Amino acid sequence: MAQTHAPAPSPVPAIQAPPAPEGFWARHPEALTALGVSAFFLLLALVLLLRRLPSHLRARKRPTLDPEQLEEMMLGSPPRILDLRPAEAYRGPKGHIRGAENLPFPELLRSLDAFSVTHPRPIVLVDETDVLSHQAAPLLAERGQAWLYVLKGGMRAWRRARLPIYVFDPK
Predict the structure, then answer these.
(1) Nearest Cα residue to 82 out of 12, 147, 33
(2) CB 132: neighbour CB atoms within 10 A?
(3) pTM
(4) What are the backbone dihedrals phi and psi of residue 4, each rounded to the nearest 5 degrees, phi first?
């Protein structure tokens, strides 16, 4: 009987090529970079929009004015602008809006009963961020003040819009 010999296994395994990449991402790796950059800018835009969200939530359908709208309103018959910040902030280096009267929030609360609601001009409430203005607005509205606005974003928004501010001269 003849013996058949099987070929001896090769000590070196055969080298196989890696499978060819498949799919869109493998064919277009630059698209992954573009997707990452787009996601970054979308996230940045979302963060910038969310900064304004608290002001919109505080407004709760109350009349508000953007800084630019208040500046336009001041060109005609100017409204009565009540700055609710403490006197130190009103007179401080961050300044105040031209023609604004300083009536700190605690003082406004004490003088609500004596506050004149028959004023012929609109009243615009201003503070640093608009938090105090939104607290004061319903109190004045309850006493019959109908023509009432809140400066949306307060003095921060006014300065961000690069509108003029007035600072007391210490001399």
Answers:
(1) 147
(2) 20
(3) 0.66
(4) -105, 135
